[in-house]
Amino acid sequence: MSKVKLWITDIDGTIVDETNIFSKKMLETIEKVKNSDTKMVIATGRMFDGAKGVSDFLGLKTPVVCYQGAVVRLGDDILHKAPVKPELARDVIKTLREKNIHTNLYNDDELIVEDDNKEIMRDYCQGRYVTYRAVESFDDVELKNVYKLLAIVYDEQKMLELIDFMTKKYLGRLTIVRSHKNYMEITDPNATKGAALNFLKDYWGIKKDEVLASGDQDNDCEMLKNAGIKIAMGNASEKLKQIADYICPTVKQDGICEVIERYVLCE
């Protein structure tokens, strides 16, 4: 087996649970990786500010993959981007509005909502290093660099029906994935964590079998498929578990730590 040169990992549900508080063991493991020859990159659906907040907290100096892979960014430098076409973003907004679905719009690195539901937004923003702006209507917002839209649904059956409807409606034009039990992500077809990983492999000259990828939800599938070692958490979706090489213990058990110790740190 080739030496792991890149560990690319999801954040929520993989290296930190819903409390957004990193365990002592996780921080110790990440510190060991930082002191090794292996690069660590976080890949998340979070917007850049949220991803950067985690990256800075962990002391990482590598690019961050954010907005489900719509952006790969290092500091002020955008290395790769794949925004949603404005006309498609308008259509999604109209569709979700008609269905009375709470929608987050990520427009040019700003989170905007037209339904300022304090409970929903407090739950979403807590521990994520992000703020948002409420507007009367998305129709008044000039759309530029729409990196993603996010539908928030708390009813499981309604979520499944929405994913099915949106997938069929925008087939071939948008990527529709579930990133959390309550979140449905809408991005450009070229904006996936897998596409971002491929960009980074070319950027650094790293081969597929030199990459370890870890995640917990359907939006991590393409990332795992493009890695040599595919790790799904014990709390992962069934779809992700089916493509994984190894299913480790849950995030609450710091499951990824034992994987990193074995495959990266060789302890």
Description:
It is a single chain. With 267 residues, this protein is α/β, with parallel strands linked by helices. The chain has 2 domains: 6-81 and 191-263, HAD superfamily/HAD-like (Rossmann fold, 3-Layer(aba) Sandwich), CATH 3.40.50.1000; 86-187, Hypothetical Protein, Haloacid Dehalogenase-like Hydrolase, Chain: A, domain 2, CATH 3.30.1240.10. It contains 9 helices and 14 strands. It has helices at 24-34, 48-58, 86-98, 118-125, 156-169, 193-204, 221-225, 238-243, 255-263; strands at 6-9, 39-42, 64-66, 71-74, 77-81, 102-107, 110-113, 133-134, 146-152, 175-180, 183-187, 211-215, 229-232, 246-247. Strands 8-7-6-9-11-10 form a 6-stranded mixed beta sheet, with helices on one face. Strands 2-1-12-13-14 form a 5-stranded parallel beta sheet. Helix 1 (24-34) runs parallel beside helix 9. The chain is globular and about 55 Å long. It starts with 5 loop residues before the first strand and ends with a helix.
